[in-house]
């Protein structure tokens, strides 16, 4: 009987010389082509941050969204600066741009945009990042100034709703049987004027948003007490950046 023997030889892993590691780090962090673009990138990021801050203040001042505009405006800085960085990297390499398309295709955004105005400001923030990242700073800043001027003119020409207009949101479980009509009756009982702006109803929850004008600040607390008599689990929230005048 013939016996076959196989000899297994284990090769030792090849150690990378320190010189090669040093060269790789130098090419990664001290590439002359990359270093030459750093001043331009830093200036673009600084300008995008400045423009996003101005855009946020414009949205807080002239926006008409029912949501908390100060909280939403905080997203403009990250969105604008990130877009500037992405476009600055992508425009220098076709391979990177193709890889970026594949990487971003797996991203899914689940945040609901309830107000079209919010979407418009988000597009404007992205446009600022695109323009600055593409090296079109003059065109971007010029268009930004024109757009903000138009927004300011529209806001100034808009009829002033008065110092005590409130964005009122009422949410209650469906089991409480509290309806939008019942909320309107409670407002009318206090002499307040109101208009229904949004109404959402699900099997377990009812939520309605109103634009309300109370004659006196004390009426707001009286209104909340009346709703709690109808539904102890009701939630009432008011948003008005200008506050209630005394």
Structural class, from secondary structure content? alpha+beta
* Mean model confidence by pLDDT: 76
What strand line-up does the widest sheet have? 2-3-1-4
Please bin the fraction of helical residues.
Answer: 55-70%
Using only CA atoms, what is the Rg? 29 Å
Low-confidence stretches: none
Categorize the overall geometry.
elongated
Number of strands: 4
How far from one another are the termini? 109 Å
How many structural domains are formed by the residues? Answer: 2
Number of helices: 9
Strand content: 5-15%
- How can the largest sheet be summarized? 4 strands, antiparallel
Order of helices and strands: HHHHHHHEHEEHE
Explain this structure to me?
This protein is of the alpha+beta class and 246 residues long. It folds into 2 domains: 22-100 and 113-157, no CATH class; 165-239, LOR/SDH bifunctional enzyme, conserved domain (Alpha-Beta Plaits), CATH 3.30.70.2690. The chain has helices at 18-29, 32-62, 69-73, 75-90, 94-104, 116-133, 137-157, 180-189, 218-230; strands at 165-173, 193-202, 205-213, 235-239. Strands 2-3-1-4 form a 4-stranded antiparallel beta sheet, covered by helices on one side. Strand 2 (193-202) and strand 3 form a beta hairpin. Helix 2 (32-62) runs antiparallel to helix 4, helix 4 runs parallel beside helix 6 (116-133) and helix 6 (116-133) packs antiparallel against helix 7 (137-157). The longest helix has 31 residues, at 32-62. The chain is elongated, with a radius of gyration of 29 Å. The mean pLDDT is 76.
